Amino acid sequence: MAELVKNCPLCEEKGFHLFDRRQFRGFEVVNQICDNCGLVFQSPRMTEAELNGFYAREYRDLYQGAEGPTPKDLLIQNGRADSLIAFLNDQVIVPSRYLDTGCSAGILLKRFEKQYACNVTGVEPGDAYRNHVLKQGLKVYSSLDDLAQVHEGRFDLISMAHVLEHIPNPVEYLSDLRTRYLTPDGRLLIEVPNLYTHDSFEIAHSISFSSHTLQETLKKAGFEIVATKKHGQPRSELLTLYLTFLAQPSEDNISSYQVHPEQNVPLKRKLGMFWRHILERLIPHRTWITLGKSARRTTCV
Q1: Which of 34, 107, 163, 228 is the most core-located residue (most Cβ within 10 A)?
Q2: Distance CA 3, CA 30 (A)
Q3: CATH: 3.60.150.10, 3.40.50.150, 3.30.420.40, 3.60.21.10. Which one for 48-287?
C-alpha cells in the first residue's frame, strides 16, 4: 500500500488530516478527512495494480474465507436485491437494457431479467464469482474496458450496489459511466455503506460516503438526484446502514461545479455509532437481522 493520495478525490483540494486508524484483518487501514469538503478517504492505499490483483483473486477469500459464493453472501445478495427492486418499483422504473457493475454472484442480474424481462449484462472483476455468473448463462465481463470492446451499446439503467466505495476515483468513474455507457435519459442506481452508522473502515473501502458527500460526488460527475433512501435492509430494521440513490444525467453545465462542504463530520460519526451501540444493547433482535445459522449478528456488510 504505497500510494499516498495527494488531492481529495471529491473536491481535489490538497489539505486533509487523519480521521481514523485501525487494524482490519491484518491490514492497517488509515482514513483521512478533507479539510475543505469533509470527504473521508483511505490514504495510504493500494496502487491500481495492487487493487486489480486484490479484487481478482484475494478480496473474497479475505472477507468471507472462500473465493466463491458462500451461503451467507448469497442470503445478503438476495436481501439486497429485494430492497433495490422495491426501491425502483416505487420510482416506476422499468429498464430494457440493464448493466450491473460489480455484479458479484449475479443474483441482481437474474432478478432483473425475471422481473423486467430486460437484457442484462454484468461486470465482475473477481475470477471465481465471474465464472459463477457465466455458468448461469449470463453475460459478464471482467471490466468496463472489456465490455467496451464488444460494443454492447448503452444502457438505460446501470447499478452499482456496494461498489462505489471501492473506487479510488469516484467522480472520474461516474463521469465515464455517464458519457460512455448510460443513455441520455437513463438512470443510475447506487448503494453504499453509510459513514455515520456502518463500520465503513475496511481495507477494500477507498471512500467512506455520507449522504452529503455521495450527493456531491454524483453532482460533480454530472448527475442530478432523483430519489434517495437511508435504510438497513437486509441487515437491520433500525440502523440506517446504507444509502441508496437514484440519479440521472444532469442538463446543467458541470465543468465549473463547486462542491458544497459538509460540516461536523467527526461529530456526526461519533453520534451515529453511539446510537448504534445503544440500539444493539436495548433492541438487539431488531438491530441485527439473523440471515441464517452462518450469519453473525454483529457483522455489518
Answers
A1: 34
A2: 12
A3: 3.40.50.150
Q: State the Cα–Cα distance between residues 54 and 41, nearest whole angstrom.
A: 18
pLDDT digits (tens, 9 = 90+) for 103-143: 999 999 999 999 999 999 999 998 889 999 999 999 999 99
DSSP string, 43-93: SSB--HHHHHHIIIIIHHHHHHSSSS--HHHHHHHHHHHHHHHHHHHHTT-
- Maximum alpha-carbon separation in the chain: 54
Domain ranges of the chain: 48-287
Report the range of poorest mean pLDDT among 124-138, 206-220, 221-235.
124-138
Q: Is the pTM of this model over 0.70?
A: yes
Return the H-helix or E-strand segment holding 143: none
What the block records as the C-alpha cell of 73 is 453472501
Q: Is 24 exposed, middle or buried (0-12, 13-18, 19+ CB in 10 A)?
A: middle
